[in-house]
Write a structure and sequence with these properties.
four-stranded mixed sheet, GerAC_N, germination, about 400 residues, six-stranded mixed sheet, about 35% helix, Spore_GerAC-like, 14 helices, GMP Synthetase, Chain A, domain 3
């Protein structure tokens, strides 16, 4: 057989074989699975209590005008001596197989967080159906209560919770999103410390667990982002405020966009003006000064003035420089306040241990056994380069214009 004909024949056979082999070998029919949108982990009476927020497809796909007849999700719980044992028991009361590929968030109750969440991380990393990009949150009470809360604007509460985290992360930077793989990286880092944002039920009154609440324009209770849980390895050891979390973001260079509030003078505590930070970065460099480690923090940021209630004329170069100095002082205070709180807890949530380890591995060998004490003594020297790129449509503040006209 000629070589050309043989080549054509082999190509035809390969093509037919490929066509016959195309299929969804691992397909899952939607009417056979229970899609989990969020998971809650609690520790109750020496057992793991796992709660699931399962999507009800026929409810969220209802586009008729007859009003809401059924809740968009179902919340139920199972218990077990291990995480997987509790998950397996879901088949005792759920007619469909649990499907976690679309799970958005994991909410950890405070009791479970203080016991240790390494079993949770282990399960999510081993399972092929789970995602290591799931967001982790911690609650001050029972985590199941968070899943039961109905939220407006979003049909699926689990998706709404994740959107809250992303919105806070991208626009305010007080609380940064933490995913499963990031949690593991923090737990296994040189310092072993990491932070996780808190979600809690705010307000007093009847909790919004019924779809009847969606008919009201105001809820007595609602979900809010709150503090920051500080974890040593896999255990919750304490809390930091959202404001202190904002300082951590500046130190670690985690600011993407944010609104920074500043005062009109260095001695004032009244933050009446604000700057929209459009770009920011922080470079941390450990240096040894007279036998002590010092962290040099080079902070660079640029943005636009969105509120000016100071008697400063931003149209003049000296006015811009004055505002830039005030912004620098404000960021410095925020950063040092957060550093001192972390040092009081002896919790290196800033990753200074890793910086020194990479800079001087031999020095790290001597520091590692008592790193908590060494971290509490480390000094940070911040330097700033702030650039005001836009002052808005008014060069002077309205307050300044009014007082000028009255003179």
């Amino acid at each position: 057989m000629p070589a050309k004909r043989r080549f054509v024949l082999i190509s035809l056979i390969c093509f037919i074989t490929c066509c016959l082999c195309t299929s969804c070998w691992d397909r899952k029919e939607l009417n056979k699975i229970a899609i989990t949108a969020a998971t809650a982990i609690d520790w109750d009476e020496d057992h793991w209590l796992i709660s699931y927020q399962v999507v009800i497809p026929q409810s969220i796909s209802n586009t008729g005008g007859g009003g809401i007849q059924q809740a968009p999700v179902l919340v139920f719980s199972t218990t077990g001596d291990s995480i997987q044992a509790a998950v397996q028991r879901a088949s005792l009361e759920m007619p469909r197989k649990m499907f976690f590929a679309h799970n958005r968030v994991i909410v950890i109750g405070e009791a479970a967080a203080r016991k240790g969440i390494s079993p949770v991380i282990d399960v999510y990393l081993r399972s092929a159906n789970s995602r290591e990009t799931v967001s982790i949150l911690v609650s001050r009470g029972k985590a199941r209560k968070i899943l039961e809360q109905i939220l407006p604007l979003e049909k699926i509460p689990g998706a709404a919770i994740q959107n809250m985290v992303l919105n806070e992360d991208q626009t305010d930077a007080n609380l940064k999103q933490v995913m499963v793989f990031q949690m593991l990286m923090g737990m296994s880092s040189d310092s072993g410390y990491t932070t996780v944002p808190e979600v809690f039920i705010s307000g007093k009154g009847i909790e919004a667990t019924s779809i009847e609440n969606l008919k009201n324009t105001n809820f007595d209770t609602k979900l809010k982002m709150g503090r920051i849980g500080v974890f040593q390895k896999d255990k919750l050891i304490g809390w930091m405020t959202g404001h202190e979390g904002y300082g951590l973001s500046w130190i670690k260079g985690d600011i993407s966009q944010s609104i920074l509030f500043f005062a009109c003078s260095k001695d004032s505590k009244s933050l009446v003006s604000s700057l929209r930070v459009n770009k920011a970065s922080t470079k941390l460099t450990p240096v040894k000064v007279q036998g002590k480690w010092v962290i040099k923090a080079d902070v660079r940021a640029s943005g636009a003035i969105v509120e000016n209630n100071c008697m400063i004329d931003a149209s003049k170069p000296e006015g811009i420089r004055e505002i830039e100095d005030l912004v620098s002082d404000t960021i410095s205070d925020i950063m040092l306040t957060s550093l001192h709180k972390a040092q009081n807890m002896k919790a290196d949530v800033l990753g200074f241990a890793g910086l020194i380890h990479r800079k001087d591995p031999k020095a790290w060998e001597h520091l590692q056994p008592d790193w908590g004490d060494h971290f509490a003594q480390i000094e940070m020297e911040p330097s700033f380069k702030i650039e005001i790129q836009n002052i808005g449509m008014n060069s002077k503040s309205v307050k300044q214009l009014i007082e000028t006209d009255n003179q």
